[in-house]
Amino acid sequence: MKVARILGIPFSIRGFHETVEELVDRIERGEQTHVVTANPEIVMIAQEHQEFRRIVEQAYVVPDGIGIVYAAKWLGLPIYERVTGIELLEALMQVADQRGWKVYLLGASPEVNRLAAERLAERYAGAKIVGHRDGYFSQDEEAAIVQEIAEHKPELLFAALGAPKQDLWMDRYAANLQVSLMMGVGGSFDVIAGKVKRAPRVWQRLHLEWLYRLLSQPSRWRRQLAIPRFLWKVVRETKKA
Questions:
Q1: Helix or strand or coil: residue 35?
Q2: Cα separation, 128 vs 115, whole angstroms
Q3: Which helix (DSSP H) or strand (DSSP E) does residue 116 occupy?
Q4: Any residues with CB less than 8 A from the CB of 160 and at least 6 apart, and which?
Q5: Contact 53, 47 (CB under 8 A)
Q6: pLDDT digits (tens, 9 = 90+) for 76-128
């Protein structure tokens, strides 16, 4: 797979539709894939978290965040469009609907997890939601959760445990999960459940979705500090080149 490295992170250079096609092909071939949807915050976490960095370097990383696209432009790298986690989830669910794939949803609060499962089952009736479990579980319960997922052998596992926890968890149990494609989806279940509104289309077209989220959820300001830190590191890399 051709990649473009930004601060050492290997991003796929495929556009959205090409990404969906590639991931579907991998599932059909029975190839296990760990997808990481990486924005500037994820990249900065990987700079400081060695184990997470190892996982990201081995994963299928897509550019979820306009900051990644801008950084690629400054660095002269062939990444031209975002591949957002929630849109990728929806696209894979459409394929699951058509092909009768099995899906497992892990993470978020009990209510959000339940509502997300219900909404996805309604919208993609051909897909099989074979199980769902909220993210409020203890370490002692993990073996049973892994066993439940493995018994169903789903094509798709979506985990909403937050980064880097969701990716660390999936990597830890990858050999036992019997899953074709596993992907961390952060707050996507909250949007699907209707608890959080995604930015209106006009904000998305203007590449200001990050600002809409910040204005809607001011408590995110600490997380958003990763954006200027990321951009500063990219500028420094550009000057070195």
A1: strand
A2: 15
A3: helix 110-123
A4: 105, 106, 107, 108, 113, 135, 166, 184, 185, 186, 187, 188, 189, 190
A5: yes
A6: 999 999 999 999 999 999 999 999 999 999 999 999 999 999 999 999 999 99
